[in-house]
Amino acid sequence: MPYPKGHKIKVRGKIVESAARAFRTNGIQDVSVPFIMKGAGLTHGGFYSHFDNKEQLVAEACEYAISDTIALLQKVADQEEQNPKINTVIDYYLSPYHRDKTEMSCIFPALSGEISRSSEEVRQVFTHELERMVAFISNLADMDVSKGRALFSTMVGSLVLARSVSDPELSDSFLAAGRLQAKEMLRSMQG
Fold it and tell me: CA-CA distance, 128 to 131, in Å (whole number)?
């Protein structure tokens, strides 16, 4: 009996979603194809009917993860009625919740170090997605892209350091300092 129309696309989507979750939490190198397939509820053998190699999956998982993050941050921003929406996004991005929910958080803090050693194809996709994220942040903050890059760099760097330390109080202090610095940057850039 043949599969229903759209089955292969749906399965591919499950694999990409599983990979994005796994890469966000464990990085690229420490995640195997069998682990990704198991996370999608599939067997390892079916991987190559959907992807040529792991690098192709990494590229698609990056695109998926950034679309997912932008949609989440837009939802967070849309819930704010009083304060500037970018402040709400900064507060969420640099929150203990976002720090700790690695499986659904932004991939830039999780993968930036590894991406520099990836294939040119993956680096091109990552670059494009980073520019897309910076454009989202810049538009939300109503600032030019150059300033948006500085703001997002502060946010990512703060989250990387908060995740890197073993002391919970120090981790929280990196988040708080990042929120304060990002909002101060906003005021000086917009003022």
Answer: 5
